[in-house]
Amino acid sequence: MSGPPLLQIRNLETSFPLPHGMLRAVNDVTIELNRGEILGLVGESGSGKSILGFSVMNQLVAPGRITGGSIKFDGQELTNLSQRQMRELRGKRIAMIFQDPMMTLNPVLRIDVQMVEAIQAHARVSHAEALARARDALAMVGIPSPEERLRSYPHQFSGGMRQRVAIAIALLNEPDLIIADEPTTALDVTIQAQILSEILRLSRERNIALIWISHDLSVVSRLADRVAVMYGGRIVEAGEVREVIHAPRHPYTRGLIESLPGGAKRGERLRQISGTPPNMLFPPPGCAFSPRCPLRQGLCSEIAPDVSNEDSHQFRCHYPLGTGISKGSAHEPA
User: Fold this and answer.
1) How far is CA 302 from the centre of its chain?
2) How many whole angstroms separate alpha carbon 249 and alpha carbon 99?
3) Rounded distance between C-alpha atoms, residue 165 and residue 99, angstroms
4) Who is most buried in 5, 85, 307, 318, counting CB within 10 A?
């Protein structure tokens, strides 16, 4: 990719001050994303993936706030912008697709009304022109009879069709970046595959950068160029998809890969990572994964590992896989 990164996140911290202490949901996260590139952001529930996405959009739920670091979009620092300035970017240059399309759609308004409003909020166009753009956007995401469906209400669509409408709305103003927060999780496998195919095609055709947030590595491996694995609010491993999937360096990443149903033999019990994710209000000392890690040693529970770099592959682990030091499965007891 040529030119400077479209999105540069540096040492980002997002925190929630609570009565019993400070919950750091995103902790020292650094990410770069180029134009037209797809980044898969994976990890268990509670790892900080969605909060990272909402931080970029500056749509954190109170009392959450960015407490450190930098977010630059096309060279512009976002953490200093007012809500009015952010509204000019949201929906126009940065868009978000939610897991539940009803977070995007108003149940009491027709689809045409909602789409026309989304266009006219950022562009001075006539109602007729906005309506034509809305119709074309529905056709683009594979909704049949788009002229007729524009006059429908959200409840008249299936779950898969509602998600397609939400994707169409995200694409209306031709954004440079889309953040997709597990948009296919609630859909059946066939519809999921169709939507993944449409998203990939549209991203390539329009050179749209995409952050695809998911807990499913199998989905990310089919869609993304690069993958970043989050655990306990940190990026614990990141790199090219093929490199991370086939040669993971962090035990947590290997645990996620081994947990995929496709890796189990017929009749064999599905594997899982033992233990539970950390309570980020009272995180464990040292490496946050150490209480669950089968490869932990004394240093792991004392000092948080720094980022190690191997070309385009980064990871946070004192005893990374593939060094001759680490042995065993991510599911074996220590």
Assistant:
1) 30
2) 30
3) 13
4) 318
